[in-house]
Specification:
The complex is a heterodimer of chains A (about 450) and B (about 270). By secondary structure, chain A is mostly helical. Chain A is about 60% helix and about 0% strand. Classes of the chains: A mainly alpha (about 450), B alpha/beta (about 270).
Chain lengths: ~450, ~270
């Protein structure tokens, strides 16, 4: 049964999948530009988190309407993929509805598929409405939402609708064909049945329509897959590893730099022997920057965060600094990291659209420096952060925006001594008085004077 | 009450060590608790509770120094570690095992960030400590000011809440007052920061259209609906920011900002 069509399909699928693998390798290379980080501890806790947050969409449910609509699209994506597997097998072997042998299970599956496909279309239409008509603020405003992110979001939604429609076209034409031939239909198609006559009853036309629907759907999926790495939609893959490797420690625990600990211990105790520094391939000691100036100073997890970002803007919408009109937007920090990483590393996609159109607002005064700091993210943004962790808490895919902000701050202070003057005074006060204010340490215990309690009788 | 009160002599670790004693718990006062006039009242209220209950506690007194927390949040890891290592030396020399503090920033740093540098202690925030005292029946919340029916809203501290998942302890403490506890729209994990964390306390805000504490105070005031009511905090920075916000809105006659320890001390009849 293998004919020309199957061979063409095989070639198309190989190219599509091959290109995708090539892109993933580039992305891996980019992410590995980052510093090493050991997050292999506690696998059971990590699996649990992945099941809850990634598979279970736990954090989405902080906002009910988008959560339910997104759930339709997400479950639709998972379940309809079963039919995609069938399409692949049919395409390669020339079979027709090869999973039909599953009987009632297949019937139920196809039934659910059609319902889900319809829900996906409805959900995506509502999403388009929210973005373009009601203009939900987090989805339509913000300096980081340049031309590309907006086009990207709409492209995804339209594509999903078109793919689902192609699935219906394929199902309707196939259904009618089987009916005309008087055969038994494998599966149950509640929606396609309702529209079964819309393409007429000419078997040749129907066959062509069915084939076009099939090809459109499968090529659409292969193209969509290769579009992912250039898109916020990449989260459908990255969300899972990103949640798995997310921070298990209390959110308030910031990283400790052991290099600094050794330095201080050596200062306090001249006999202290710090461990030998790490050597590079040529035997020179590796000197790491304190904090982060550019993407290679961040950890691979922080870089992976930026590939996972779905640009939903929940972080920015809960950021106290952003709410009160400051320049800081946690989403911009993450999106800038991705853009800079792809500028510095390899661009995974066929084209590099991230810089399409400059930032919309004049206030972000980036410089020409080819670094994440200042070239993309300005000190003004960083100094607006209250480290309140609202962004981290809100992120449905467990991105740690705050850790990146902190590492950039550390570079400003430790390598450039570029803290705002008021903070430098605070540092001086701590050094001299052991308190962030200019009080004498000898007055520290004065609060205890003239303190009375009722005596017990 | 005049005739029935006694002067408190707050014990220090040094005195205890000199007597060969060890306290049950070290009360880490913190810089705000030591120097800020408003927060000193919280420190005193908490000590009154400790004295009243008869907990064997001590403070470091003049041996205490900044945990380094504001330096760390501002990016000055070097200064933070200097402070931390010095403080750890002091505390380890006294064989400190358990610490209670009324400052969520000190709490978070001592609990989460000191262990990496050799300081391993059981650290609890005063909200949890007070909750335990209430649950154990050591504090009865009787004999002082009555809070029945008074409107109180609790403002979540970021470093207690999101940073350490402590949302219920301060609320349970307030629940003991039998007051009319009302919640703001943004609470618990979704709580809005007062604007002072991340070393913002020590600098002017970056350019914007509003101060964060005003945004939060407006929310609190709208929730309380005016009248004789209270914004309860459990953090010295939140205390400053919310008090300033209430002043800015010219509501200081109607709406008072109190730390949960002050409310308990008042309800127990410990403060004048």
């Amino acid at each position: 049964m293998i004919g020309v069509e199957n061979i063409i399909f095989l070639i198309v699928a190989t190219i599509g999948i091959g290109l995708f693998v090539w892109q993933i390798r580039n992305i891996r290379k980019n992410v590995l530009m980052g510093r090493d980080l050991d997050v292999t501890d506690n696998p059971s806790e990590r699996v649990k988190k992945t099941l809850l947050v990634a598979f279970g969409q736990q954090k989405m449910f902080k906002r009910m309407l988008p959560a339910v609509l997104h759930l339709f699209v997400y479950v639709g994506f998972l379940v309809i993929n079963v039919e995609v597997i069938e399409i692949l097998i049919d395409g390669i072997t020339g079979s027709h509805r090869v999973l039909g042998f599953l009987g009632p299970v297949y019937t139920a599956l196809m039934f659910i598929n059609e319902i889900l496909a319809a829900l996906v279309i409805v959900s995506c239409a509502i999403f388009l409405w929210r973005r373009n008509v009601t203009k939900v603020p987090r989805l339509s405003s913000g300096v980081e939402l340049r031309a590309w992110p907006k086009v990207d979001a709409n492209t995804i939604l339209v594509t999903e609708i078109v793919l689902m429609l192609a699935l219906f076209v394929f199902n309707i034409a196939g259904l009618k064909l089987v009916q005309l031939q008087g055969g038994e239909v494998a599966g149950s198609y509640p929606i396609s049945s309702a529209f079964v006559n819309i393409f007429g009853d000419n078997p040749t036309t129907l066959h062509i329509i069915e084939r076009v629907g099939w090809w459109f759907h499968i090529i659409g999926i292969l193209a969509f897959m290769n579009y992912l790495p250039s898109s916020k939609h990449f989260h459908i893959i990255m969300a899972f590893p990103n949640v798995y490797y997310s921070k298990l420690l209390p959110k308030g625990k910031f990283t400790t730099n052991p290099a600094i600990t050794h330095e201080i211990k050596a200062m306090l105790d001249p006999s202290y022997q710090p461990p030998a520094p790490e050597m590079d391939a040529e035997g020179n000691p590796v000197i790491q920057r304190f904090g982060a100036k550019d993407v290679e100073d961040l950890t691979w997890k922080q870089l992976m965060d930026s590939y996972t970002c779905t640009e939903c803007g929940r972080c920015t919408s809960v950021c106290p600094a952003n709410i009160t009109g400051k320049l800081l937007s946690p989403r911009k920090i993450v999106m800038d990291t991705r853009d800079r990483m792809e500028e510095k590393g390899v661009h995974p996609a066929i084209f590099a659209p991230n810089h399409y159109k400059e930032l919309g607002e004049e206030r972000v005064e980036v410089t020409d420096e080819k670094t994440l700091l200042r070239g993309y993210i300005t000190p003004e943004e960083l100094w607006a952060c209250t480290t309140c962790n609202a962004c981290v808490e809100s992120c449905p895919v467990n991105i740690d925006q705050l850790s990146t902000i902190m590492d950039l701050r550390r570079f400003l202070v430790l390598e450039e001594s570029a803290a705002p003057a008021a903070l430098n005074s605070m540092f001086t006060n701590i050094e001299n008085n052991g308190a962030p204010w200019a009080f004498s340490p000898s007055d520290r215990f004065n609060w205890a004077e003239d303190l009375y309690v009722p005596s017990k009788n | 009450m005049e005739e029935n009160k006694r002067l408190v002599k707050v014990p220090t670790m040094a005195e205890m060590a000199a007597n060969g004693e060890e306290p049950e718990v070290l009360f880490w006062v913190g810089c705000a608790g030591s120097f800020d006039d408003r927060y000193k009242r919280v420190t005193r209220a908490f000590v009154q509770i400790l004295e009243h209950v008869g907990v064997k506690y001590a403070v470091l007194g003049t041996e205490e120094s900044c945990t380094g927390e504001p330096a760390k949040r501002a990016g000055n890891e070097f200064l933070f570690q200097m402070q931390a290592i010095t403080n750890i030396e002091v505390m380890n020399a006294y064989n400190v095992k358990k610490i209670v503090t009324a400052c969520p920033h000190c709490f978070n740093t001592l609990k989460n960030e000191y262990p990496d540098l050799g300081g391993n202690y059981e650290v609890i925030h005063h909200s949890t400590f007070l909750q335990q005292l209430i649950n154990e029946g050591k504090v009865h919340v009787k004999g002082g000011e009555a809070f029945q029916g008074k409107r109180i809203t609790y403002h979540d501290s970021c470093y207690l809440g999101r940073a350490n998942d402590i949302y219920e302890a301060p609320r349970e403490v307030l629940a003991a007052l039998d007051a009319d506890l009302v919640e703001m729209k943004r609470v618990r994990a979704n709580g809005l920061c007062c604007g002072a964390g991340g070393a913002q306390m020590f600098k002017d805000a970056e350019p914007g259209k509003k101060e964060i504490n005003i945004e939060r105070t407006e929310e609190a005031l709208a929730t309380l609906g005016g009248g004789n009511s209270v914004i309860a905090t459990a953090c010295p920075f939140c205390m400053v920011m919310m008090s300033d916000g209430v002043k800015n809105k010219e509501q200081e006659e109607n709406v008072k900002v109190f730390d949960i320890a002050e409310l308990i001390a008042q309800a127990e009849g410990l403060s004048k």
